[in-house]
Structures are given as C-alpha cells and as structure tokens.
Amino acid sequence: MGQIAKPFVLSEADLTTLDQLVRKGKDAARKLTRARALQFSHQGQHPLQISQSLGISLATVFNLRKRYQQAGLQRAIGEKARPGQPRKVTSQVEAHITQIACSEAPDGRTRWTAALINERLVKLEIHIDDESVRLALKKVSLSPGSKSNGALGR
After folding, report:
1. InterPro entries under this entry (predicted)?
2. CA distance 39 to 18
C-alpha cells in the first residue's frame, strides 16, 4: 500500500496548548486546521486519513509534522509574514507628482488633471494609473487645478 507513517508524539505542554486552542476556536481557521492535524497525528491517525477528514493535502500533513519536529509548535501552526506586493507609488514618485502638480499647466490647459499628470509621468518612464495619481495628490493635500500663491493648495 505505502510507507508506514512514523509515530508522531507531541509534548504534554504542546498537547495542552493545542487542546485549549481548538476548544476556544477563536483563532484563524487555517491555524485551527493545523492544530487539529497535529492532534490527529498524535492520536495515531494515518496522514491520508487526516488529510481527507480535514480537507487538506497529504503534503500539508507531512509538512506540519516536519515543521513541528524541526522548529516547534508555534512555527508549525503559525504563518510566516506575507510581505505582499511592493508599493508602486513610492515617496520618489509622490515627489514627482507633487512637482508636476505645482508647476504651470501645459499650454492650452488652465489646470492639471490626474490624466495630464499621468501622461507627464509616462514620459519620465513612471507607469501608474490615474487613480494612483489622485490618491498621491490627496495624500499631500493637493488638488489638481486649485492654485494658491502659484502652487496647488488645499
């Protein structure tokens, strides 16, 4: 059939922690599922049975067990930080937007619009959308077209 799963044993302290965690049920669903998988492993259930009963992959069960043995309970049931996508509108881009918005409007125009500012940014090889321009202006309390002493004001 397949390999026999190695016996998996949790420490008493970790078992108590998992029991309290599952009993309260106030943590994230993913964390609770991991906790249950470790409990079932401790009870001697086969990894395939655990994966089917909890709706997780077989690899997840083995990875949880391995993480617990290598790094402990908190690392096994917790998640790493997810950095996400880096910001597209950095402080340098905001400075360009502010500089453009505070300059004289292009010929034939009475004021800057988010679209006009964005066109100028494209010429500088900065590619963001009009909404990002608007939000950057809002952040620095500027509005395209409202002049106050030669610069955009509030």
Report:
1. Homeodomain-like_sf
2. 7
pLDDT in tens, 49-81: 999 999 999 999 999 999 999 999 999 999 888
> Could you give the CA distance from residue 129 to residue 131 in angstroms, rounded to a whole number?
5
Here the tokens at position 153 are 């004001």
Task: Report how far residue 143's alpha carbon sits from residue 98's, in angstroms, rounded to the nearest whole number.
Answer: 10
Q: What is the dihedral angle through the alpha carbons of 83, 135, 90, 152, rounded to the nearest 10 degrees?
A: -160
Nearest to 136 by CA among 88, 85, 103, 104: 88
- How many Å apart are CA 100 and CA 94, to the nearest integer? 10
Residue 76's nearest CA partner among 34, 46, 13, 112 is: 34
